[in-house]
Amino acid sequence: MYELLRGLEMHRITEKEKCDKCFLQRSNALRRRKKAFVRSGSVKRINSVRKNPKKHQEKTKKNILVKEKNEDFRYIQLETKKQKQHKNPLIIPNKSKYATIPWILRWKFRRVHPTCDIRIQQVDGGFFEKFGSLFREQVELTETKEKLEKEKCAKLAAEVIPSKLDYEQEENEILPTVESDSENEGSMVSSDSDLEENKDKNDLIFTALNIEELYAEILYEILHNVGCDVSYEIGQTTLFSYAQDAFKISNDKHNHLLDMAERKEPPELLLNVEIIEAKDLRSKDSNGMSDPFVTLYLNSNNTHRYNTSVKQTTLNPTWEEHFALPIADQNSEDMLILEVWDFDPAETVKEKFGKLFEVKGVKGMRKLVKEIALTATNGQHENELIGIAKIPLKTVPASGMTMWYSLDKKNKVSRQGVLKVRVSFSSEKNNQVAEQELRHMLRIILLHELETSKVAPYWWCGMFSPQANCLLTQHIAQSGLTPTEVSVCQYCVFALIHQSHALSFALFSKLLAGIVKPLQNNQICEDDVKLFWNATKKLLPSCFSIIRKIRKKTSNEKATMKQVTEVLKILNYILQLDLPPNTDLFPLNIYKWKTYTGDGPNCDIFGTINDAVVQGASDWMNYILENNNSRDESDVGRLTYYIQLIQLIKTDIQKSIEYYDKLFQETVNFQYAKSLYIFYQAKVSTLCEPEVTNICKNLKRLTFNGKTSTLMTTEDSKEPLSAGTSLFELYLAVQRFVVLGTGLCPADCDNFHIKNFHQWFHGGVAQWLDIAVYKALQRIEKAVELDKLTQVDNTVKYSSSAVDTLSIFYQVKVFWQQLNWPDVESSYTFIAKIIDDICRCSVFYADQMSAKVDGMGDHENVYEKKFEVTNEWCLAINNIDYVRETLEPFTQDLGMTDIIAKITDLKSPVDAQRCQHTLDNVIANAIDTVRNKIIELLEIVVNKMAPSMKRLLIEGAELCNQDSNSIDRLMMYVDNNLSTLHRELNEENFNRTLSIVWEMLGATLEEIIQCNLDKRRPPSFFDNLHKTLNLMLGSFKSPNDCSNCDALSRTERLLKINGLETNDLIHEVHLEMARNFAKEKESSYGEISVKVKFEGSAIKVEVMNARNLIAMDSNGSCDSFVRIHVLPEHKFSAIDKPKTKTHNKTQFPLYDEAFVINITHEQKAIKDGLILFSVKDKDLLGYNNQYIGEAFLPFSEIPETNKPLSSLPQVHLQLGRPTSLSSDCIRALEHRQGDKLAKEFLKKYKQRMGS
Amino acid sequence: MRSNHKNTLLKVVILGDGGVGKSCLMNRFVSNQFDEHSFHTIGVEFLNKDIDINGDTYTLQIWDTAGQERFKTLRTPFYRGSDICMLTYAINDKSSFKNLQMWKNEFLYYADIKENNQFPFIVIGNKSDITSEREVSQLELETWCNENGITSSIETSAKNASNVQEAFILAVEHWLRIEKRADKNETVYNDTVDLTKKQGEKSSCCIGSSDEN
Lengths: 1251, 213
Ligand SMILES: Nc1nc2c(ncn2[C@@H]2O[C@H](COP(=O)(O)OP(=O)(O)OP(=O)(O)O)[C@@H](O)[C@H]2O)c(=O)[nH]1
Ligand SMILES: [Mg+2]
Description:
The complex is a heterodimer of chains A (1251) and B (213). Chain A contains 41 helices and 17 strands. Chain A is an alpha+beta fold and 1251 residues long. In chain A, helix 8 (138-174) crosses helix 25, helix 18 packs across helix 20 (483-498) and helix 32 (896-906) runs antiparallel to helix 33 (909-959). The longest helix of chain B is centred in the last third of the chain and has 23 residues, at 164-186. Chain B: One of its GO terms (molecular function) is GTP binding. Chain B: It is a lipid-anchor.
């Protein structure tokens, strides 16, 4: 644990960057750690494979059982074996790879770059890390994931294999001939005839044959082997015994048949000669050319000559003409003689050649040619020999040969040119019979070979043993079958045998390569064409079965690839051919999986390929679906199951892209992966849509109150949590699946049902957002708990939980980005929700933060309780502010502008504007709300400081003039705390704090003043208090701002007033009245006009007149006079108070009296001196003059001049009366109840008011 | 910048059938405007407004939701954490009145509220200006409220601005009543109140000591 903490701190110290960089770093770290996560996951999985060896064993056992039951499935079991071998190395390297990384090391790797504290993740088991970071690391992740999935897939495929047995058996039932074949091996009735759908004339020949006759024929052929290659290598006896083995003939029978064969006439063999071409012939004519032709004959029968046509004027003629020369006896010394002549046209010969076009039929032709040849050899013409070639028959192999021979001429050494000839043997046997025999031989021999050889049929590549080869070659040679005929035979026989012994598809494709051209050119007889198509019909099911079961051999990709390649080649060849009319290439009773619905024969190869591909995928999927025994029926279980299923499907498609797609496209121009995808997307849709929609509809909402701070992971919330989480995982899985489809089929993907998959999940989004908030709140709680309230590093003033909180927000954002929600209207709403949620998280963070620091900095000892502003407090405030600052940039990253633009398109600009407005408001509200929280916290701080500051003020007031270290101590307190705040907080928050402090001081002082006024404190108390306040304000770093605070300046004034002596206070009242009167524009009491000036140390006053005086007497008029006072009274106590004469019964008296009031220079210098003109109504008796009103003229407005008063302008002064008893000064006076002066003044004041 | 005296924040959600005039009510209240041709709300709309009651300022965070059925999944996430819920119908639309029960239930479920009679619901019958087409009488409204234990209801018109301000004030007052009741039960300390108390104690103690000197 300690290690872990240190690691964390280290990280934080190194994190010098500001916010954005910090983000970057974090996302990097995240990426790195994500890897580690995946790795550990894969290790786990491998372990689970290793933990379950029992399962594997069982599987192997099953396979062996199968083997015993059915020989035919040898290859299956072989494959399983292979797979197992394949599998182990797969596990071992992986295991060793992870084993080499010590666990500790990996753990350390984790620690070096923690995003948010690992322990914070532990709160929810890495909830966000699981999905949140997928987005950015998708590439990286998919790589690793794919690997895992492949592995899983291989495992699953291994499970699929046993089920393959079912298919095979099923197919065998469809083709009963195969079974009868193996049962009746002894009595060898042609199974071809069984298969033939329509019996035709060929049948007669086929039924005539039986195995003994065929055997006798073979023996006969052995006895009369032809060609040079036979007897040297393999003796007759070897061949006899091989044939006996292959045909399973008893010795007696063999001897009997051999005897019969020996007694039979030797075969009439023909030597087939094809004169192909000659080159570089010597010229014989004057024109430097020749007109060559070839004469050929056997040495033993030199009268029987054959001639080719004459090629005119060439030295490189091409003939390509065929001749069949009967071989008289077994004269092994016989020779074929070839003579090349230059034709010199004699009339007669020319005439004869002319007849050439008239004769018909081979016999006539031969006759004619013979005649021409005779003429030529008789020398009755002037033909000239170019050269001769001699071929001893014993040099010719049974299978024939093609060679260039150089031409010789007697006595000539020079070269006469070269001649290309093909020589082979043949018999005059019926071709149909010969082919039929060949097919049977092929079948018997091949079955025999397969039985005796140790090689699995699949690996058989067309190579017979030498003996078999010899028998077959002899038969072919002695029957004179052409290579094409042989190929067709082989094709048919192999196709038949393939039904029971899967032969390599390469065999067929190789044969087809030779057959396709002749077929296209109609060079194959009708019967063979029919046979060919029947064979093809037999072959095709297994071809499509390969395509259908493309998945079964996952362990040996190469072999499967090879097989598929060959199958596709076969299909490609078939595609190149014209089908004979009315061929039902894909009978529905065999192709049960076909979707073909048309009437009549079906020859749609592409359709069948597609069906096979889809069927294969469908079988595979059904297998998975059916074998999911341990199915967890809870929502989460089902969802998890679908996630796995989609992953498997995705892997399957990816594999198909990797291995087969190109193959299919290049060979048969078929889009394999696309076809698969189209199938899967429909399947996934039908499977998932109803489930997901249903689960979404019935999701239990998360029960947590967004406001309270206690988050409990109760059992209640667990289920919706995990259901929501799984749902989201499934969403991502489908999303990635859809992305895959967009890449695969860019043109069609819009029509896919799965395209709108998000609609299935619609009801889940709100849940996810709720979960996200829930998790975020949990994490924040943990982050605050773990925060040690120290700066993340020296350059920043916030601590770990702020960084952690931001990274939580970041996770929420990534979560949203990952969702990539396509629907515009809901996207808009969800963004609003996310912003609101983030705001909620911020507020929650602020609350947690303030709860954490609450109680910090409180000191208590026997003498006092004290609060010190600590760095922790400041960090807490900074943290919240840091989070608040990032709110706006955060919201910008949610893709708002994009969404608003889309709403403009989709709905209307007005709607878009309203949405924009709402989002702006939500953001503003969020920021404001968090700011409110900051202020709340600042208030707490200030309020905590309040008691100490209050004490300072009071003590200051009591003890100001005495030396007291208690004041120093308290001054220090304020100073320290404020400078801490100043140092740690940013300017905005510090200023905020100050204004809160001032407000607090204002309120506190008012309280103190009130309290002490009640106690009748002397003015000096308030004066001292005032001084102390100023002292304190001085310790604020920016005292100039304190004037902004109304409360404080008001209390300051209060202090000033209460600190004044009564005389000064009274003057203050007058000054206030002077100010108030000056503001009046009109007065209901009247107005007086005066002229006043200073001259030396005298005030010269002339009272001019008064107007509109208020009527005081019952007669509606008044008898007024004006008295002049100089104030403040106590400073001008010895000065006259002159007055004018009384002017009776007029409201507009003209006084016109001038006065001189002598004062001292000191008195004149009094700044706030006032002249008071008091207008009164003279009482008849003179005792009780009535007060009309008064006017003030401040010294500051009186000019100092030598000019006579008469030259000065009149000053008009409105008369007024005191109005308020609630002014601060009056209230201060009221509090001085023991003060006579104050009492008297107040009494007069009230009289003046009331009159 | 907001003054340093923080306001009480109250989250208000307005619910009711599409077209009963929720958005108009909010706009009338916040910006004193009325739009005759207002569009259906997409998902939610948000505005906030300060309102003074008995000298205290409250900041109402008003979430106006979309009443159309297709927006159900979009609006319900916003119910959580609400302080006040306004159930709205139009007096000329009986079915919107009938749906109040559904709205109330939907709210209680998604807002995750346990004791429903503790929650400040207020029922608003809007469009009171078109009495000629009235389909829901005031008596019916009262009856429904009584049956559902709701004590606050009012008829408003966003069009001619009658009772709109009053409706929101009524809602906050209702909230205050319930809040006070809760305060009494749970003695939840408000920070400011709490601190003033402490201050009071301390100052008297200080003064006491200074008196002795
Ligand atoms: N006569 C009258 N019409 C009103 C009043 N309030 C709203 N309307 C009209 O009713 C219609 C719908 O008002 P909105 O505020 O958009 O309805 P809403 O409840 O927000 O509807 P949704 O957003 O779909 O839930 C508009 O055409 C308004 O002009 C009202 O008090 N009196
Ligand atoms: Mg609306």
